[in-house]
Structure formats: C-alpha cells, structure tokens
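Final report, closing paragraph on structural work. Over the funding period we assembled a curated collection of sequence-structure pairs, and we close with a single example.
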Amino acid sequence: MNKLIKILMISFTSLFFTANAFAADVTMRISLQLPMKSHLGQNLLLFKKEVESRSNGEIKVEIYDSAQLYKDKEVPAAVGSGSIESGVASLTRYVGDIPAVDLFYQPFLLNTDEKVRKAVSKGSSIRGPIDNAIKNTGSTVLWWQAYGNAIMLSKGQAIKNPSDMKGKKVRVFGKTLGTFVKAAGGAPTLISGSEQYLAYQRGTVDVGMTGVSGVKSRKLFEVMDTITKTNHGVIEFIVVANTKWFNSLSTKQKDIIIKSAEIAEKDVRDNVAKIEQEAYDLAKSKGMKIVTPSKADIDAFKSASKPVYEDYKKNAGSLGAQLLDAASKL
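Its predicted structure, as stored:
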C-alpha cells in the first residue's frame, strides 16, 4: 500500500510540474531589495498583473522581495551574468562600470519635478545614453522606478546645515553621496537599504540618507525621530533584464514585457509625489519631526558641494561631461 501511495504521489507531482510547464512558457524572476508593501514592490505587482494578463499566462512573473535572493549591490552582477532573469537596483549601483550614472546625485542639480521628468524620459539626452551604457553590463533596462528625493534622517538634531553633519557617521548608498557627505564634514558609511534599520538601531551611524518612502516601508520611524527635507539628490531605481534571456524571447513576448513596463513606469512616476506626501504624513503621525532647511542653509550645502562636481567631472569621463551638458539645458 505504501509503495502504491508513493507511486501515486510521484505521478501527481510529475503531472503538477507538467501542467505548470504548459501553463507558463516563460518564467521571469525579479529580485527586489525592498518589502513588497513598498511602492516599488507594488509597482512590480502592477507589472506582473499586466504581463500575465496580456500573455494569457504564457509568461509567469515571480517577485522575490526583501533581498531574499540578492542584495541591491548584487543585482547588477546577478542579472548581467544571467543568474536571474531580472532585478531592481538603485541606479547608483552601476557607478563602478558607469561612473556617469551618478549625475542624479550631483547635489541640487535636478531640483524640480520638470527637470527630473525630462531627464528620465525614455530616449532623452540623459536617460538614453545611460540605458545604452548599461547594455554593456549584460543587462537591458526595462523601466525606471521613481523613488523620490534624498533626505536626511537623524535622532535629536536635524541635519539642516553642513555644520550639523561635521564629525557624524552618515549612511550613504553610493560613492557620489559619500563625496557629498565628506565635503560637508561627515564620515560616509556605505550600508545597503535592507540593513538600514539595524544600522540606525545599533548606532552604527548617526545620520541616514534615504528616500522618505523608505521611512514608511522600512518602519524607520521606530529608530530615527527627525527628517530633514534637504532634497539634495534624486533617487532612481531601474528594473533590468538579462539581455541574452530577453533576446531569447519571441517578438510577441518582448512586446508584452515592454508594454507592461511602460505602464508600470508611468504609474510610479505619476504617483511618486503622492507617495512621498503619504510617507511624510505617516512619519509625522508616528512622532517624527519634519524640518525644512532655510534658503541660507541650502546655499551652504551648495557651496560645500563644489568638490562633488569636480570629482564627478574627473571620474565620469566623456559620458559624464555629455550628461552634465544635457542637464544644464533642461
């Protein structure tokens, strides 16, 4: 009897996987470092819904959130090598291969929503060259995910002026942001987004740099009590697919993914201001103090930021010079 049950179980398992194979011709796994409840996670769910609906289930999208498979810094290599079909990474994670991507973290450069929208529009004089450069890493950019402006998190004292940052350890998520912190007198520490909470809780750093939506999705209001709206940089994430995998798909399948990506990109871009405001409202309801620096304070940050631009010009090469020129014309 036990032998018969075992045979039946094996047969059932085989039928289950065979049925799944027929149901989905293509499986697209996506790695995400943020929780599914974050707005980037919700944006991926919209993409998943569009792809699976448009393909009648022929393409199955699996989302692995909260860095289950890869941390943010590991995504470019994992996707580029084909270890996973797709992933979400902060744009600055490509700075090692393409230093020019840190244009978005040049302090106060893209300081209006209009400038940002022009810069990130598909095929623009800024995004176009960046997307092309990323192809050299083995990945194809599917869409950009707006995350909002960079802010400062602290406990007790607001970081509204460079003098407030002197001697403090500051969590950053990119090289250029580290240069910005050094220029302001702080000590940068590179910490992954998924490790922020513990870093603040343990006092590994005194100050945090992130997007305000992360305060909500990562519950950072439990470990920090002050937000300073410096808005000194624009945080962009990109969803990339392994190029060889993507090119192996049929024309119809690629078209479905591209169309779904366009829908997802428009949705997150159009809603990012609302998402940020909701995060500020939640932070305030949790007792966090929201501080807006004065014009004089922002001017002090701008003045301190001159070495950041010089460093970018030196390291970003001809592409960096091209992007800076394009940004100046927005």
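DSSP finds 14 helices and ten strands in the chain. The two ends are 76 Å apart (CA to CA). We thank the funder for supporting this effort.
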